[in-house]
Amino acid sequence: MRLETPGYSTLAQENQLKYSFSGSGVNVLSALSRFGHEAYLISALPDNALGEAAVANLRKLGLSTRHIMRSGQYVGMYFLEKGFGARASKVTYTDRLGSSFNTASFGDEQLAAAVAEVDVLHFCGITLAMNDQVRSHMLHLAREAKRQGRKIVFDCNYRPTLWGKDGYERAKSHYEQLLQLADVVMMNEKDAMLVLGMPTAALEREQQLKELLPAVAKQYDIQTIAGTHRRINGDNTHSLKGYIFSKERLIMGREHSFSVHDRVGAGDAYASGIIDGLLRGLPLEQVVEFAAAAARLAHTIQGDTPLSTREDIEKAVHNETGDVER
Amino acid sequence: MRLETPGYSTLAQENQLKYSFSGSGVNVLSALSRFGHEAYLISALPDNALGEAAVANLRKLGLSTRHIMRSGQYVGMYFLEKGFGARASKVTYTDRLGSSFNTASFGDEQLAAAVAEVDVLHFCGITLAMNDQVRSHMLHLAREAKRQGRKIVFDCNYRPTLWGKDGYERAKSHYEQLLQLADVVMMNEKDAMLVLGMPTAALEREQQLKELLPAVAKQYDIQTIAGTHRRINGDNTHSLKGYIFSKERLIMGREHSFSVHDRVGAGDAYASGIIDGLLRGLPLEQVVEFAAAAARLAHTIQGDTPLSTREDIEKAVHNETGDVER
Amino acid sequence: MRLETPGYSTLAQENQLKYSFSGSGVNVLSALSRFGHEAYLISALPDNALGEAAVANLRKLGLSTRHIMRSGQYVGMYFLEKGFGARASKVTYTDRLGSSFNTASFGDEQLAAAVAEVDVLHFCGITLAMNDQVRSHMLHLAREAKRQGRKIVFDCNYRPTLWGKDGYERAKSHYEQLLQLADVVMMNEKDAMLVLGMPTAALEREQQLKELLPAVAKQYDIQTIAGTHRRINGDNTHSLKGYIFSKERLIMGREHSFSVHDRVGAGDAYASGIIDGLLRGLPLEQVVEFAAAAARLAHTIQGDTPLSTREDIEKAVHNETGDVER
Amino acid sequence: MRLETPGYSTLAQENQLKYSFSGSGVNVLSALSRFGHEAYLISALPDNALGEAAVANLRKLGLSTRHIMRSGQYVGMYFLEKGFGARASKVTYTDRLGSSFNTASFGDEQLAAAVAEVDVLHFCGITLAMNDQVRSHMLHLAREAKRQGRKIVFDCNYRPTLWGKDGYERAKSHYEQLLQLADVVMMNEKDAMLVLGMPTAALEREQQLKELLPAVAKQYDIQTIAGTHRRINGDNTHSLKGYIFSKERLIMGREHSFSVHDRVGAGDAYASGIIDGLLRGLPLEQVVEFAAAAARLAHTIQGDTPLSTREDIEKAVHNETGDVER
Amino acid sequence: MRLETPGYSTLAQENQLKYSFSGSGVNVLSALSRFGHEAYLISALPDNALGEAAVANLRKLGLSTRHIMRSGQYVGMYFLEKGFGARASKVTYTDRLGSSFNTASFGDEQLAAAVAEVDVLHFCGITLAMNDQVRSHMLHLAREAKRQGRKIVFDCNYRPTLWGKDGYERAKSHYEQLLQLADVVMMNEKDAMLVLGMPTAALEREQQLKELLPAVAKQYDIQTIAGTHRRINGDNTHSLKGYIFSKERLIMGREHSFSVHDRVGAGDAYASGIIDGLLRGLPLEQVVEFAAAAARLAHTIQGDTPLSTREDIEKAVHNETGDVER
Amino acid sequence: MRLETPGYSTLAQENQLKYSFSGSGVNVLSALSRFGHEAYLISALPDNALGEAAVANLRKLGLSTRHIMRSGQYVGMYFLEKGFGARASKVTYTDRLGSSFNTASFGDEQLAAAVAEVDVLHFCGITLAMNDQVRSHMLHLAREAKRQGRKIVFDCNYRPTLWGKDGYERAKSHYEQLLQLADVVMMNEKDAMLVLGMPTAALEREQQLKELLPAVAKQYDIQTIAGTHRRINGDNTHSLKGYIFSKERLIMGREHSFSVHDRVGAGDAYASGIIDGLLRGLPLEQVVEFAAAAARLAHTIQGDTPLSTREDIEKAVHNETGDVER
């Protein structure tokens, strides 16, 4: 649950909030649902007014809520104070220790049944940081997916504040377990260096990518690795460039600069673009531009959750800005 | 009636709208009323709560509502979802077929009486696209204006979606009828080429203008033709340049680049500036800069309707931005 | 689509609206979905931003949108100005003639497939007033339902403004066609007298019911007829009493008086309570009290659409008001 | 200018306000304009953004703003915190000493020209409390009206806080000057006793009226005197009863009890009902019920300004509450 | 932190919330601060944006925040969906286990220093339900207060959901420890029967009070016990009656009925009235009516926190409702 | 009190406002309070609902309200219409003549006691423009501060509209009195030339500074003079450069360009940075960059009042923009 102050005000200045329901998985699934895929969220929500609101809003986003357990008492939340220019946006989390998701106990058949319904499963590094029970569910689910021959997508999404002190060390083995099972991985050079501890002599980001991605793909037997490089410019615009590594080839997309309305969720939009592009069997050059355009558009949309259709994104691949559509 | 989602959200994301009452004619008249002219709208609105709200808001904008008939049942509406950067603004129309305006039947004396009260009549190409009855009223009104020696302004405002398939062909004769009666026409090179089917070998916009405007003026016996050229830049700014053709001279104004708050209604602001400048007998060079500054300011104003005074516009002719006025 | 002014203001006073998506069918289905039933809406919506918003919100309400065609261009809307005390609430409709629903052309197999998925079909007298095409679809659907052995619920919902002049006469045969196919009918003594033209010497409402319902049930071979009697009291409260006729027995429920927050949709809540109660095979005395409590609660809920669970309603059957639940 | 906190919150609790432009004269004129009369406000407003907003909103209410001078710098304002039950609504005024209205200097021909355009002039005791210049303008205007044979309505509206210490004594001569010129006076027994110092032995309100109104009418040669008696009941409802005295007859209207949405401006609605009823030459019994119903409806309308049409009021004369109009 | 949906909507219907910072202690202290007392809150808040907002808002309410530790990470929150009539208001709590308050570790000198600054300490049964550490801090503080000769007020505020299964048994010893130290206790007959397990043969609430309060006062050596009896009526009004027991006398206040705007925090307003009345040495009859009027007014104020001054309350002791104060 | 229209709308377009309580002194004190200083405002506010709201909000900002007198009746206000691009923001003041601040009569001991509690006093040229009584209080306070050995900061803040015709001449002696007492002065070359009438042959701003500041410092015996140079660029960004003169050295800071969210209060943020930097004894180069960063951040914050902590500002000294903090 995202709770956001109006405009660019802080929590101390205001007495009103807008709320919505999102999360990395929700965002990827919502985007895929816009592309015409059926999207199922495996999660848990409390059987109270907040859970009810969450379920209703997930349905609204186009997700099937059939695999959402109603158990536990709490919903994970974060407060967002949107920044402006030199004042960064600020996220404040509420206690997630006892959330329905973190305390839910999924049965084996339940998970197997969920796997049976889908072609692709998406896992996120943020949930990997939660607790042992969640990690055990994730691993079980990934193995079951492998067993049933489903594709596995894993987005590293390493968040330092969630792993805390000595986080890289504590995270490594968990990341490795999922990497070994994954077909498609969202990752950058830092993940390789810091989480996986892989060495490189290169100093420049792109050079590091070129050295590390083949090594990662080889070591963990990963078919495809993709991600983005972002630069924040002095004039408040961002510059973004996608990349994808597959079959020994690293393809760097074109860099675009643009103004940002809502930063959160852009990575998930990129992931959704990669997944959809691969599922459609597009050439990798097109996949990476489609995904990057999806990410760019996600910066123009209020809230965490990407809402663009394939048509919207195709248009954005070619043009930066448009006049009123009427 | 314009119904607009908050901020940059879409209709599917929100549950609130802001509404206002506008339209090409309303915008031009409201702007002229700010310049000190008396402004009368000839239109029709239903005798219900929506019509009441529309009439009250037109009065608020400074229009005389004396020539607004209260008949029919419906008001034409559009929904506006404001875009951001690469995500274009989107307009969704409601059914206008049965609107009070489209079904109203104005009496001949009624129209003659309205003409008798004014110096200048403004016609808009959007209403020309409505239906035969509306077109017949427009033509009747224009002929009556001619008969009584009033000035006629005609803004081409060709909207492809309203004319539909084979639109240019279907529109041509209707446009020609009004062009032959008009003294001042708002038009660009595309109108000449596509609607009127006039040929040009030039490839560049400005060159096309130079060739076509004299030809149009001659063929339809038009005293003054004016318009703007707009470019949308990569950094979300727009660039605008006004032009005016009169007495064999084509004057191209200076180009200005600026950020855009609300795109809709800027063309109407330009038209109002041309009309006011001509009525005041300003030199054409000043007319075109005044009108272009009016258009630029209209981009900075919330809603379709220009609200700037002559003083505001004169200031904007010379300066792009100002500090707080206090 | 319902567009509502804030608080008790009129359209002429405000510049903001809240919107939601409802309708008699939506309300009944949403209520049944809260009771645990699967609910499918058969309708049509345009493939534009408004249609997208509508579909998303219907999903949010818990409806399956699988049988919603995306065709046509427009959505039916109404504006609501909430009244206070002696100032009645006011509804202003937009043009529905060209709405997606009124222009949609459903295929026979499409309708047959929809019928095949459900146990009960709900028809509403409001849609019966639309046009011949809609009526023909309704009749086709009802016959198909009969053929496949489904239960048919028909809510008379006669709206004078929709049928216009000589409405009762024009409506009669259409109503009769559906009554002959229906198993459960929502109706009151006025429907019998005015639409069906059935005579009664009784002067008092309840006495009229007692005479007419058995006659209607017999003539059209209807298993169950139900409805409510409402009184509006001087102190702004409403009094409501449910009734149900079945197997020769007319059961009058208890009358309750209560304050009203949102009047619209209460009849649909009553219908949903009747349907749920009958499906669960409750004794008729309980069915009528359950439905009346559902209707009472619907008056306390913002918007047209009932949101109460069975537990909420059971509580309301027994208590009028409660302290904070914490 | 009225600035109002949301809901029932106080200024210290909130950071948002709604604003509108009203005043006793504005309210009476707006109501009369709804009844089909032309309504002119004689006042002054500054030539700045606030004055612009005020003028636009007065136009929106249907007032002609032709006789509003644009001079001075300030607009009188008040803040309204709506109370609930035992917590009374609270009005906080801003400084009015230097307002445009209080500092404006109207020319004699200006006032004479304004008088020439109207049939009836309405004066209010609130403005009488402002300062000597305002009072001198009022007196001049009233005498000019008399000279030109116009009807004069004077609403006593004595406000203790505005007259301050020894207010009754200071006010008396000013009230007497206007009473001697007035044809119709809005007044109650307290005005007669406290402002005019007229004696009565009666202890009960209605008895005091019966004794004092004939005496006032005789002494100041007033044709018609009207007003209301209000009781505030324990259950938050108000009870209101109108009365009118004319040609030796005191007619007491029926008492009605009702819930209150917005208390301010109800007296002005009553005055507008009296004026309209008298202008139409209705029997006094009807005048008083029409005016009382206008006042009742004004309690149901957001803001100070009555917005009901004659049809709305006629309906309210007969029914207290109605179901949704659709 | 209280997060509240707009109007009477549910979390699933809306996307906006209003928030404020309250709590039983905050409410009592804020009320006392309005009465002219200095008020210190002993609590803990995180050193992040939420904590900053909380501290700023507590200052706004008039509390000294000097004794608020900045430690831990989370703030306790609850969501409020305001009910209407038969639909009860609903409170949904977030996880409080890890809140700053529940994890804070106060030093002994810190608490002793806080005690040294005040005359009276207020303890609340809600915090008693938190955890052992909190309870230990409370006991330490109460003993230190006793040692330094301060008055101790204890409000039982037993909340079944917080104590859970076998709550009464688990709570008893903790309540007894504080009762033995308290000078003034807020309590009703149920607390005595259920928490303290004291027997009574009486069946009627008031009779139970008469038997149990003297017994409680004697057993735990309490000087004064006070509380309220509330009835919720069929017409949505509440009836409230205060009582106080001291020096062998049980004084029952007058019962008042009234409409309710915001139910939460009324008990705290009553407690603040008792404390202020006792500190001022008013006769007990006046204390109980002052406190009951404070509680009544708290029902008319938006939010949990009472904001009335002594003058407001004195007025409310005598009158139920008032006209606009202007 | 600042009353602000939503978004970029004008007062004539809207019916809602946001309000807050600010002022040059409030802004400086609030910023210093964020830096850990205790901050006391010496002012006057009415004892009514507006005064109550003001006091509550000043407490919320972290100011001690102990030295705020409750006297008089009115609060000074201004309306803000935020501009966009070429349309400048517009401030409209209400009447301040009779405000509590302008009519308050502070006692000598009262002021002496206030001085005794603080290390530094901040005076503002805006209040110097009010009236003789205010100026006399300021002078008394400054002399008392000198007597007690406190530091005096004086911000020239010359506002032409407040001093009116012949303002520079009328202001000069009042400015000189304060300059002679001040230790730190906020001032630019225009103040020296226009208010103090000091001559310079230089034509360029920075050159003028270099000539005039040493002269001013010498003539009035001022230890430190600081200020900023602002340029408004064509693309709506502003460029700002701080400077400080002390001990014969003029240090020009680096120039930064940035987008502006809220222009008002940036000068006060700069002053607060200078004061804090000097109090901490930072090198002047660091003082000026710290103050300039504080000013830049103030442009990114909603409202007049700076809210940044030292940590926020230190970060902004080094980076222009940052990604989400999470």
From TrEMBL, chains A, B, C, D, E, F:
- What one GO molecular function would you report for this record? kinase activity
Q: Where is the Carbohydrate kinase PfkB domain?
A: 10-305
Show the InterPro entries listed in the entry. Carb_kinase_PfkB-like, PfkB_dom, Ribokinase-like
Query: SUPFAM superfamilies this protein is in?
Result: Ribokinase-like
Q: Which UniProt keywords apply?
A: Kinase, Transferase
Q: Which domain of life is it from?
A: Bacteria
Gene3D superfamilies, alphabetized? 3.40.1190.20
Note one Pfam family from the annotation.
PfkB
Entry similarity comment:
Belongs to the carbohydrate kinase PfkB family.
Record protein name field: 2-dehydro-3-deoxygluconokinase
